[in-house]
Amino acid sequence: MRPLLVLLILGVSGAYCGSHMLQYYYTAVSEPGHGLPVFVIVGYVDEKQIMRYDSDSHRARPAVQWMETVEEDPGYWERQTQISKGNEASFKQNVKIVMSRLNQTAGFHSVQHMYGCELYDDGSTRGYNQHGYDGREFLTLDTDRGIWVPIMTEAQITTQRWNSPEVGAAERNKNYLQGRCIEYLRKYIRAGSAELERKVISQVKVSGHQSDAGTKLHCRVYGFYPKAVDVKWVKNGEIDLMSEEAAQVLPNPDGTYQLRVTVEVIPKDGDSFSCHVDHSSLKEPLTVLWEPKKSQTNLIIIVAVGVFVLIAAAAAGGGYFIYRKKNPYTKAQNKDNDSSPASSTTA
């Protein structure tokens, strides 16, 4: 499956530290396949799925208990079902339209739509609205200018129509992101505060692996919630180090998360390396200094010297024993001394 399509289906959150985000993902495909419904909508607040609609069930349903009563109106979920059915018909048609513009008559193709709004702790907001086709960006909303911008050449016709005063899609979508979307996000945060506002302090462990080529430093941050976290290695307290390995936040069975950031360095005398962690569970960013252990080479030398001493001692003892066996004088001495305790006892 194409990366963007996977993103839309799974609903990967992009929320930052100290913020909450409401996101919706729509996907319509040209034909059944890959284990996907022909049409699906999923809604998320931060990392939590809050609703789902698909063409198999034809029902919009809450995905968490606190969403069941987020609206006191008993007809809320029925209205969401009817709205979603309308979107299903529209998106099925959109797949055919884009296929025709690309001269495609068959095959598995997909139209995706993702939009959302983010609310920061300081009260500021951010919104986005994007459409994709077959895993590539098709067109996107410029929320600053209030216009749709084509990404693919085939999107120019749609962009011109949506930007026209008669349709007014750009202004309508911009107003939604800045108004109603934020309004509902605040409502969902209140309803699910016990889960969404949970803060679990992260734990940090640093380690290093030395080799002839250099040193690999690992910073593992684990047991934290929410998912958004900023982790980086810093040299000498001021130089940010870039990681050549992809750092991926992974889930733990208890609902928390873990992350490992690795950098490769060549330490010089006087250099210091520390891992910096910023997470909403921390009052201040956390700094953990890496302290290199004793060189493995020195350890090997120490062990080798110890083994040599033992071998030398054993060899000396063995040589002395052979010498005593072969020397006649030492044999006679041994015979004279081989007497009973009584013979050497004085009266």
Keywords:
single chain, 347 residues, alpha+beta, eight-stranded antiparallel β-sheet, four-stranded antiparallel β-sheet, 16 strands, disordered N terminus, disordered C terminus
Give structural notes.
This protein is an alpha+beta fold and 347 residues long. It has helices at 3-10, 76-101, 156-163, 169-178, 180-191, 193-196, 296-326, 328-337; strands at residues 19-29, 39-45, 48-54, 61-62, 110-120, 125-133, 136-142, 147-150, 203-211, 214-224, 230-235, 239-241, 250-251, 257-265, 273-278, 286-290. The strands form 3 sheets. Strands 4-3-2-1-5-6-7-8 form an 8-stranded antiparallel beta sheet, with helices on both faces. It has a 4-stranded antiparallel beta sheet with strand order 9-10-14-13, with no helix packed on it. It starts with a helix and ends in a 10-residue tail after the last helix.
Concise overview:
With 347 residues, this protein is an alpha+beta fold. The protein is built from 8 helices and 16 strands. The strands form 3 sheets. Strands 4-3-2-1-5-6-7-8 form an 8-stranded antiparallel sheet, sandwiched between helices. Strands 9-10-14-13 form a 4-stranded antiparallel sheet, with no helix packed on it.
Structural class: alpha+beta
- The order of strands across the largest sheet is 4-3-2-1-5-6-7-8
Distance between the termini: 105 Å
Q: How big is the Rg?
A: 35 Å
Shape: globular
> Low-confidence stretches at least 5 residues in length (pLDDT < 50)?
1-16, 294-313, 320-347
Main β-sheet description: 8 strands, antiparallel
Count of helices?
8
Work out the strand percent. Answer: 25-35%
Extended strand count: 16
Integer average pLDDT:
81
Order of helices and strands: HEEEEHEEEEHHHHEEEEEEEEHH
Classify the helix fraction into a percent range: 25-40%
